[in-house]
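Obj.: predict assembly geometry.
Materials: sequence records (below).
Method: joint structure prediction, all chains together.
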Amino acid sequence: MDPENVSADYLNNIWKFFASLQLTIVVLLSLAITSIIGTLIPQNEDPGVYFQAFGPFLYRLFDVLDIFDMYHSWWFQMLILLLTANVLVCSIDRLSLTWKIIFPGNPRFTPARFRSRKNRHEFKAPVVPDRLSGTYRAFLSKRFHHTDITPTDTGVALFAEKWRWARLGVYVVHLSVILLLMGGLVGSMFGFDGFVNIPEGESVDTVRLRNSSETKKLDFAIRCDDFDLSFYNTGQPKEFRSSLTIVENGKSVLQKDIIVNDPLRYRGINIFQASYGEMAPPQSRQRIPVPETITLSLTSTESGMTYQETLVSGQTITIPEGGGTFTWTSFSRAAEFRGQPIGPAIIGKLTPRNGDPTEIVLPLQFPSFDRMRRGEFALAVIDRQPDTPLQPDPVEKRYYTGLQVTRDPGVWIVYTGFILMIAGCFVTFFMSHQQVYVELSESRSGSRVMVTGIAHRNKVSMANRVEAIARQLEDVRG
Amino acid sequence: MNSSYLLSFITFIYGFAAFLYIAAWIFRKEGPGKLATWVSLVGVIGNGAGLMLRWYESYRLGIGHAPLANLYESLVFFAFVMVIIYLVVERRYRSRTIGAFAMPIAFLTMAYASMAPHISSRIQPLIPALKSNWLIAHVMACFVGYGAFAIAFGVSFMYLMKKGRETDQPSSMVYIQPVVLFLAVALLNRILMQYPWGLSALIALGACVLVYAAMFLYQRMAPATRERLLDRLPQTKVLDELNYQLIMFGFLFLSAGIITGAVWANSAWGRYWGWDPKETWSLITWFVYATLLHARMMRGWHGRRIAYLSILGFMAVLFTYFGVNLLPGLHSYGAMGQ
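Observations (raw structure tokens):
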């Protein structure tokens, strides 16, 4: 064998490898299985946390394999690259074969292709083929885009088809996958994802980039004029609202209030409400003193009775109605619940009658907070000594707003991919290239009619459709 | 009448319908089957009315939002979609036996929503991240997809039952099957009922014993009796096709669900994809069903292999839906105890 032939053979084999469906199935299942890892091990946390959790050996192993940022690891990207190559090669491979079928120029049909089909319906009609064919063609052209007629040795053959282009559906889906991956690539190459905290009344023009130590300077400044937050009376957050102004060359050019789900977009840059916080209060002013005694109200969900108990820090009380015990363990000036600041709170240990002790948090600002727990008893702090106003002076409280600032020029490629994926899936799953063939042959009393049909997909429903068409044609009679 | 009461009542209606379908199948009677269809129809109308009533109630509380915002509401909607899809299938395929496998899933879903101690049926206000027009589109698309997959799961089960044991089954399968069953049941107990691992394992062990006892008894049945159970099931060819149709339908909606979720995430958090566990698990589910569709369309996989993949896909759906709440991430508002 001469070397040229060998290399051609070699290339051919590579092509075949990338065009194979085995590769698709292996890559899809590998992606599915490996993706699980990143959902079990939280991603992108501090190395110290991982070291503590896994110990030195596993930590080193996971670190080498990039398990802590696995969706961006070389091997996961490699799988995605394999999938992309597979989708591309496969589509080109098949499309080059089916292109002629999809765009035949002038669709012709060959009766021989249909005559040998098994699912055929035959009946007799008392009219000669020539008279019947006109009626039948009118019937078919109402249901199919394209119809054709050809004389045969024994009579006449009718052909009808529709949705030839539905064969393209699957390529549209594949194209959409490529677009999604391309859009992601464009976004990661030319976009950025940063965040910034802006105290009320101040402005910034530089943001910190996520997962890196770099910063990025913007062409304009963002000023936070005001930040507002509101809560439902259950203590759940209701709305976070930042009033922002875009300042360009010293001039205010755009003003908008943003909330979660309603960002500000300016010159391709998106500004999202992401978090907030309280500015550190000025020293020694209006700090809430540590309470020495508190009065609790205990409301039984069962009986609806409310009891009161006064206790000092560290004391354990017995809950009435045999509801167990409660111990006041500590006091926090700035407690958090699910990551949200809830202000000063009493922290205690609740030991139900039969059950494990749980830590509960009783924020001083939200007396109905503990009802959310839906325990046997809802606890609330109704009084405390020494007492100071919880909301110091409203003027004194200053917030900063946490903004996410992103630019992603790839997002429109991704969105185009989304639309194509839905459209392509719909066409692929629910439409098919349908061809119907009706042959009329002369017989002694009129015509013998044979009806058959094919679809390139969903053959079962096509068989039903052909049967229905045959039945209807039998009724038409001409 | 309060929507929670109405919906817990629907649980019993679905239970009754499931009972009638099973009775019609086992005792080979037409009457209970017809009644079951009507009972299901009444149930699904009540289910829809319950959701609408809940929507109205939320406005009366001054926190108006579509009833698709927490675990309870999503479960109720899930059952609603499942029964609608089932009734369409029943009409199309003219087989009520499928109901004996589909309605119990809807019944269990509603029973779980109404009775599990950690699921609150209270109407809660929307937290800021959920206040979006995408909420309805996203949740609806996802659960229409899940509903179709749930029915496909029931149909796959019927398929395996009808087809019977593989004659050329490799001997390793004898050991693998109970282990897989045990692990699946234990995991489901852990994530659905939040039992500790020990109790979950114990229940799983019991479930395995029960399943294998049932299978043993089934094997010992006179062939004629077994035949009488099976001949009411649609033909394997029909079940296989139905499974495939449901999965195509579900896949379209799952894709739409993931896409609407991505668009929503982009407007709320400034990114359309972030590998958060729920996102990742929905993608894993998508991969499983994509594998199934490719194997079926291009390699002509049929029968058992498709049925097993369909069951695997539904397990991924369940994990996406419930299991993820055990994992850290942003989707916590669909979580238990909320």
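Conclusions so far: Chain B is about 75% helix and 0% strand.
To do: check interface contacts against the pulldown list.
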